[in-house]
Structures are given as structure tokens and as C-alpha cells.
Write a structure and sequence with these properties.
Blueprint (H helix, E strand, L loop, with lengths): L19 E7 L7 H14 L4 E7 L5 H4 L9 H11 L3 E7 L7 H9 L9 E8 L6 H13 L3 E10 L3 E2 L2 E2 L2 H23 L10
Parallel strand pairs: 1-2, 1-3, 3-4, 4-5
Antiparallel strand pairs: 6-7
Organism: Actinomadura yumaensis
Keywords: Flavoprotein, FMN, Oxidoreductase
Protein name: NAD(P)H-dependent oxidoreductase
């Protein structure tokens, strides 16, 4: 009797979800900073919802090739790389502290060098820190109009934390954590679609 060889079925193919390329543009001159303390919580929460790859641009550490540039052609290759990373992100997180009622000049200078149409329809998540809750107005009255100029898709949720929400640069206030969790849940379908090259609508509700 001839033995029949058993054919082993092929192993199932494991499909890995594509990672969302997140670029943080950090407008704080301090290291460490409350601004990045807030952003770190946002990134940690987002990482629990979908795969992400994160890179960071610290505008105050880009050097003379950035601060001395008037036009895009003036920047050094490393600054050009930072600009291109921001322009090619799946999600841009624009984060800044509030100084004298608005974002710092170096933060604005970075976006002065970004191509005018590079952020069109790109999801941009806004984050800011300030001395008190009244500084939260910077999100709607300064930062959102800046990205409206670029025709960016600034997501409806934005995150703010005041000095009293931190111990040093560590965010402690559970209410801010809760706002971040709820806010990201409302937009995660949109962000996931960006990672896969598809389209999605924003969830409504809290």
C-alpha cells in the first residue's frame, strides 16, 4: 500500500496594518517642556489605538541654517529634511506654548518656509500649553487660522493644558487625559484611513 504524503497547508498570511506617519512640530524653546509633556500623552494614547511612527522637529534646535533663512532656498539640507518630513506626514501635530497671547515666532517661522500647498487636506492636530486656562484661546484664534491658510484639515479636536495641570513637565490632570482619550476616539477612523490611503468621516458625539 502506497503511503500518501500529507501536504501541510500554507501558513496564514499575517497582514500588518500600515503605520500612521506622525510628525510633531515642537515650538517650545525648553527641553524638557510642558508642551512635549502634553504631546507625549497624546502620542501614547494614539499609539494604543493604531500603529504609528513618530518623528519630531524641534524648531528651536534647527540652528543657523533655519534661523537665518528668509526663503526656502536658503535653508541647509538638514532643515530641508525637517520641512519635507512635516510636508509628507500622514498626521502633523503642531504643538506650541503660548507667549504674549500667541505661538512663538520660531514656530511661525518654520511654517513660513513650508510650501504653501504641501499641507492641503492634511490632518493637523493642534496642541498648546499656557499659564492659565484663558490661554486656550490660542488654539482657535491663532493656530487654527494659521493652518486654514494652508487649507489643511485641522481636526475638530485640539488639546490644551495649563501650568497647573503639570508636575514639572509631567501631565497629571486626569481631566486632560480624559479629553485626549475622548477626542482621539472621535477622530481615529479618519486617521486610520489616512494611513491606509482611504477616506473616512469624523465621528460625532463625545
Amino acid at each position: 500500500m502506497t503511503a500518501v504524503a500529507r501536504v501541510r497547508p500554507p501558513d496564514p498570511v499575517t497582514r500588518t496594518a500600515p503605520s500612521l506617519r506622525v510628525v510633531v512640530v515642537n515650538g517650545s524653546p525648553s527641553e524638557p517642556s510642558k508642551t512635549m509633556g502634553l504631546v507625549d500623552v497624546v502620542l501614547g494614547t494614539l499609539k494604543g489605538m493604531l500603529p504609528i511612527e513618530v518623528s519630531r522637529v524641534d524648531v528651536y534646535r534647527l540652528g543657523a541654517g533655519f534661523t537665518g533663512a528668509i526663503e526656502r532656498d536658503d535653508v541647509t539640507p538638514d532643515v530641508e529634511d525637517s520641512l519635507r518630513r512635516a510636508e509628507n506626514a500622514d498626521l502633523l501635530i503642531a504643538a506650541a506654548p503660548v507667549f504674549r497671547g500667541t505661538y512663538p515666532g520660531m514656530f511661525k517661522h518654520f511654517f513660513d518656509l513650508v510650501d504653501q500647498y504641501a499641507l492641503a487636506n492634511k490632518p493637523v492636530l493642534l496642541a498648546a500649553t499656557g499659564g492659565g486656562d484663558h490661554h486656550a484661546l490660542v488654539l482657535e484664534h491663532a493656530m487654527r487660522p494659521l493652518f486654514a491658510f494652508f487649507q489643511a484639515l485641522t481636526v475638530p479636536v485640539a488639546f490644551f493644558a495649563s501650568a497647573g495641570d503639570f508636575d514639572g513637565t509631567t501631565l497629571l490632570n486626569p481631566r486632560v487625559y480624559g479629553r485626549i482619550e475622548v477626542g482621539l476616539t472621535d477622530v481615529v477612523d479618519l486617521l486610520r484611513a489616512r494611513a491606509t490611503g482611504g477616506e473616512a468621516t469624523l465621528r460625532t458625539g463625545g
